[in-house]
Q: What sequence folds into this?
């Protein structure tokens, strides 16, 4: 059995969405991955992308295409459609977010400890899938995606959002170089006196989920329309975590599609 954690906030008769787990039993010794990283080479990752595409299409016959991307921790978001490159065996397009208006297209985001932000507009019939690690969050890629949806006719009050399992504020330790980007937002907690003083050697806990949620709220999305997964990828070994496993960590797939 292929294990997936499905999002609950979306209407499951209209939306297929969630995140793949490591699936160690069926993909030993290190699990299932859709992106090359560490012990996972490009050939293995390409097979993973192909496997997942075939799996979803079998489970949901209305799905026409899965679209993968090559992420660079930037803020490039593109509108994709049935003519876009799938990224299964061929070169993946470079970007960190996608928006789509078509049914049958599944948007796929590659994750370990970074957050996947899945968005659905049930009124306009639009979806979005965003990759937001600390670099993306520092540049407000989630907010930028909402702005892009607004330009294409979405009302933020209609949008529903799922923030995927990712490194949590309980375990995501960062240095001052990262923490300084978020101190004014209240998303970091100092761990030492050096941290409190803002010294370069200080350590902090960074809550990326809180940071992203606040960015979404600032764009006008209703709090009740945001579901935040409580799962921490560093703690829960059912999920890949680069922080925990280093080069033995693969990449999960956070996905969303209109069916």
A:
């Amino acid at each position: 059995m292929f294990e997936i954690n499905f999002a609950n906030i979306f209407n499951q008769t209209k939306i297929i969405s969630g995140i793949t787990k490591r699936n160690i039993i069926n993909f030993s010794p290190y699990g299932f991955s859709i992106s090359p990283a560490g012990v996972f080479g490009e050939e293995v990752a390409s097979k993973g992308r192909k496997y997942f595409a075939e799996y979803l299409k079998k489970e949901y016959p209305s799905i026409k295409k899965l679209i993968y991307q090559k992420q660079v921790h930037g803020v490039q978001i593109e509108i994709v459609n049935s003519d876009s490159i799938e990224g299964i065996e061929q070169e993946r397009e470079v970007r960190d977010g996608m928006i789509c208006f078509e049914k049958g297209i599944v948007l796929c985001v590659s994750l370990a400890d970074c957050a996947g932000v899945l968005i659905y507009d049930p009124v306009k019939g639009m979806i979005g899938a965003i990759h937001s690690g600390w670099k993306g969050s520092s540049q407000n890629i989630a907010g930028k995606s909402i702005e892009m949806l607004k330009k294409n006719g979405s009302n933020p009050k209609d949008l529903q959002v799922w923030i995927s399992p990712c490194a949590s504020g309980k375990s995501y330790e960062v240095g001052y170089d990262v923490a300084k980007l978020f101190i004014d937002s209240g998303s970091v907690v100092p761990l030492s006196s050096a941290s409190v003083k803002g010294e370069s050697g200080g350590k902090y806990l960074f809550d990326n989920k809180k940071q992203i949620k606040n960015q979404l709220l600032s764009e006008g999305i209703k709090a009740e329309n945001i579901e935040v997964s409580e799962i921490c990828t560093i703690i829960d070994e059912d999920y890949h975590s680069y922080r925990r496993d280093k080069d033995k960590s693969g990449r999960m797939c956070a996905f969303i599609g209109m069916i």
The mean pLDDT is 95. The first strand starts at residue 4 and ends at 6.
